[in-house]
Request: fold
Amino acid sequence: MQSHDWNDLKYLLALHRSGKLKEAGLATGVSDTTIARRVRRIEDALGVSLFLRSASGLYEPTDAGLEIIAHAERVERENIAIGEKLGGIAGRVTGVVRISSVPVIVNRVLIPALSSLTAKHPQLAIELVPSAGNLDLSRREADLAVRFARPARGGLRVRAQKLGELAFDVYGPKREGNPKALPWIGYDEACSGLPQAQWIEAELAHEGATRAPLRVTDAETALEAAGAGLGRTILPRLIADKDPRLSRIPGRDGAALPLRDVWLLSHVDQSARASLAVVKDWLVGISWSSDS
Reply:
């Protein structure tokens, strides 16, 4: 077997995680031709094909590719651990921690609380990924995820820790007049399974209220729409109570509002990282419930 450059492994992992040359290049700061060349160099050194291109255009790993990827991920984890260990020897917590959550949590909870973490650990870098989708922790699309539900995939490799509960209530813009006359800002069909979407649909059916000419896909957009005066919707109390544009609207008697669990998800293979430990402690320390 020919010798090969282990620095090429990051390009191999980037292609595995994105499935596309261009996206792998963007993730690593090189061109797509560089990704192709460096992966081909590993294939030539090993004498096997590591990827096949599917009918959809994605690069899918072969059996040999999966075996090499598993080794490459272990090398990646060790490289991260070495960097953090060197920082720890110097008495610092270093490294990069990538956190994924829905936009309303990133913008309204994590960012306002971030200064307390960075002031204590100035050598620590945080990457925030606002995404409603479930990123794959095993592929390091994120190191940690804050979600409204337990993980749907990952099995025993993903650890789930409950952070708290978010209580929802009805909110609309601060204005004169009857707030119950405001139209409901609901969710589109793709998000119809969300508890808050189902609650709004039930209210529409019960009271015969009007529907706003706007459909949203996440609570962040619903909050902005209500703040802009487009109607009423239900939002987490912890977040909406702090927005000066909004006020609570009394709900219908007997209509129980949603209460959603907040979960912290992490990958068990990275549990030894000092940077993840301090970020987890920070997330646990955030207040995840409203006072009333």
In short: The two ends are 67 Å apart (CA to CA). Residues 63-89 form the longest helix (27 residues).
